[in-house]
Write a sequence for this structure.
């Protein structure tokens, strides 16, 4: 007998009942309800962000019949949520489906989501592509909050600064968020205002390479091979008790290239040099076809070569709303004591 979409959604919902109760108890209302690649409909994701139900398709659009089936299922299970559907099956995951005026009002409405008693700004659709809070990174934010009381944090490739806000909420002594995007940092600043924080996080608009080279003491030249570099903020050398490194899979600027498949060391080494002796460096790698063991070996060799060997490591696994078929989730996260 062929299982229907409703059957898959129901199995996934039942599998999360214990987790949802745990999250509710810790003041979390943001989690993945359906992870289609593993749970029966490849490319379909259903995420809860507070009172928003965000439905997205990355491989092929939902037919009107399937969208109606999904809508009916969650209207029964979670009737208070507003549903927004984004068809992201086109090139570069650009949103393809138009919305009615009423639907667009719902999708564009400013909302709040909560995670471990931290409040985050959320919107179903906005000028960018990605949600303003990556749910699979919750396990890393949780680990940072457990680690950071009384310590300093450098949050690199900070995006909307979720890790930095969580660290400030958990009692960090000092928090610096670095990202090149004004719009992302703007959301990060809104996130800070949404919360009562014992310290005010710092937000630095900068290419991560320029920031890391200055903070680590290596320095960033204004001219490279006779060519003037783009403007960058001047920063004093400063190292941190904890550095969070969450780079994109690939990015290129005049300051350097981020390539998580072929050259993770190019971004790892300067981040390592921003970390205090005896400190903690948490790294992520989003590339699904990179083996975590091979990646860890690369990190260990790079750290040894830099004269800052890794003393111990700890894998951080996504929580159970992100199931994996083989026990090796695409998002790899590791905590390093250096």
């Amino acid at each position: 007998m062929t299982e229907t979409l409703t059957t898959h959604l129901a199995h996934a919902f039942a599998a999360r009942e214990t987790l949802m109760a745990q999250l509710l108890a810790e003041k979390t209302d943001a989690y993945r309800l359906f992870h289609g690649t593993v749970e029966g409909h490849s490319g379909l994701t259903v995420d809860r962000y507070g009172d928003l139900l965000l439905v997205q398709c990355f491989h092929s659009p939902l037919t009107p019949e399937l969208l109606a089936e999904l809508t009916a299922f969650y209207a029964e299970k979670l009737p208070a949520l507003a549903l927004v559907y984004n068809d992201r099956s086109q090139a570069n995951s650009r949103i393809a489906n138009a919305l009615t005026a009423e639907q667009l009002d719902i999708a564009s409405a400013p909302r709040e989501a909560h995670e471990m008693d931290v409040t985050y700004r959320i919107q179903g659709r906005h000028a960018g592509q990605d949600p303003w809070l990556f749910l699979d990174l919750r396990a890393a934010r949780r680990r940072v909050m457990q680690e950071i009381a009384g310590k300093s944090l450098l949050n690199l490739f900070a995006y909307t600064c979720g890790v930095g806000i969580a660290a400030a909420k958990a009692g960090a002594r000092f928090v610096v968020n670095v990202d090149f995007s004004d719009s992302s940092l703007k959301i990060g600043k809104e996130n800070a205002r949404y919360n009562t924080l014992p310290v005010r996080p710092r937000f630095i608009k900068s290419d991560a390479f320029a920031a890391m080279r200055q903070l680590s003491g290596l320095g960033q030249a204004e001219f490279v091979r006779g060519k003037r570099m783009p403007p960058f903020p001047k920063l004093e050398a400063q190292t941190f008790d904890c550095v969070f490194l969450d780079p994109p899979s690939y990015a290129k600027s005049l300051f350097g290239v981020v390539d998580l498949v072929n050259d993770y060391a190019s971004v790892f080494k300067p981040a390592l040099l921003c970390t205090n002796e005896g400190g903690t460096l948490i790294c992520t790698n989003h590339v699904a076809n990179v083996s975590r063991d091979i990646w860890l070996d690369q990190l260990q060799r790079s750290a040894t070569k830099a004269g800052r060997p890794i003393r111990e490591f700890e894998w951080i696994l996504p929580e159970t709303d992100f199931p994996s078929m083989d026990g090796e989730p695409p998002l790899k996260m590791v905590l390093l004591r250096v």
Remarks:
- The CA atoms of residues 25 and 161 lie 24 Å apart.
